[in-house]
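Notes for week 9. Today we move from apo structures to complexes. The key idea is that a small molecule is not decoration. When we ask for a structure prediction with pyridoxal-5'-phosphate present, the ligand SMILES becomes part of the input, just like the chain. The input block below holds both the sequence and the ligand string. Read it once before you look at the output, and try to guess where the molecule might sit.
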Amino acid sequence: MDQSYRPDTACIHSGYTPKSGEPQVLPIVQSTTFYYDNAEEMGRLFNLEDDGYFYTRISNPTIDAVEKKIAALEGGVGCVATSSGMSAIFIAVLNICKAGDHIVSSSAIYGGAFNLFNKTMRDMGIDVTFVAPDAAEAELEAAMQPNTRVVYCETLANPALVVTDLELYAKVAHAHGVPLIVDNTFPTPINCRPFQFGADVVVHSTTKYMDGHAVQIGGAIVDSGRFDWTNGNFPMLTEPDASYHGMVYTERFGKAAYIVKARVHLMRDLGCQAAPENAFLLNLGLETLALRMERHCANAQKVAEFLEKDSRISWVNYPGLASSPYYQLAQKYMPHGSCGVISFGVKGGRAAAAKFMESLKLASMVIHVADLRTSVLHPASTTHRQLTDAQLLDAGISADMIRMSVGIENIEDILADIRQALEKVKA
Ligand SMILES: *Cc1c(COP(=O)(O)O)cnc(C)c1O
């Protein structure tokens, strides 16, 4: 694989290069297991002494190709594909945190990730402090504890559309000898590559733009290979692992210690692997990612500008609008565009929002976001309904907020649909 490809070329060519006589298109290797004709060879694979496939829970050629493509897109040393974005987040954190440890996280994150940290991981003995997404350096510093092992945020938060100051978060994390883990689902590596701004690990829900067609649930963890795990804070990477005859990850795998451990320890024990067929579908989506992101962003910019001028709309939040409090940060971290998701309020509050949503014809009401069809959602009554009003506000969500995921249809059809739905609200 050629690491020098530009992102739009990497989308198509990275990860899989057929040899003479092999399929031109990435094949689905629908096999749980792999044949070897001697026990010695298989034993070396089990001991992690050789590279090779033996069981799909650990690795599989179809999944491997997609992992290599995503690693190339993010500029990382390795990637593990998982069964969902949620399992990617869980494994990324659990790989370096145990009971008694602590996470500092931006409060403006995906609702599922918030619940994972706030309830499930607390119950496991891993504590969390949430900080305001725009926290100043002193506030971030104050949240750090001696047992903090991860700082976590989203590049572009779903659904609050907050752009996080990655360099600031990375600076504070690194000053305390801990990595910054960034969820880069919304901008995708086409619009932002967090490793360039100090992030150490990137996670994705590949269910969203990377897939782009809403056909599979998946996740990915990418390792920059740049964090120094030998600073004393991460014994799970620097002390012998008894389940591999006392092997030490940092000694055996160097820069790839973190991502190898995620695979051979946590994927082995938790089994959240992607299905080969889903990896195949994800790869198809990735092939057109660069092209689709361009169109999503262009369409969303036009919808945002249209809504901002309409008197029936109370507010519009899109980082591509000069009026957005995140415009400057977006220009810095994602200068070629952010994503296709916009949020806004319809005057008249909850009832008007409901009427508007019901009146849309082209745009469909679904839980999903970030695929090629324009869709709408009311977060307060769906994705974020477990959150209290105070937690909603911390996550940057108001009761009247409509989230519109602008698709790649013709912009005139999208705008016509919004216009006719707004007419119904007025009536
Ligand atoms: C959807 C989403 C997730 C969760 O991913 P699933 O694939 O649904 O498990 C995590 N983070 C962000 C930013 C998301 O949008």
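The mean pLDDT is 94.
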